[in-house]
Design goal:
By secondary structure, the protein is mainly alpha-helical. 80% of the residues lie in helices and 0% in strands. The longest helix is centred in the C-terminal third of the chain and has 18 residues. The chain is flat. The relative contact order is 0.13.
Length: 71
Amino acid sequence: LLLGQFLEQWLGVRHTPVVHRDYGTVLMKQGDFTRGAAQWERYLSRHPTARDAERVKAQLTEIRRAIASLN
């Protein structure tokens, strides 16, 4: 989680939309789907016309389904 702590501090300093997308991806790869999805949602809210917005939305839908199936 040291990497996660570093990235959270980095996000506090650098608020570009892409940072939220990339941090969300890191969290997803670490298995932290809830926090990863939250970062992707921030990315989309701050950059709704991004070239990859539709792909990220589709991935969010899949992740939400997976999270729901675990409950």
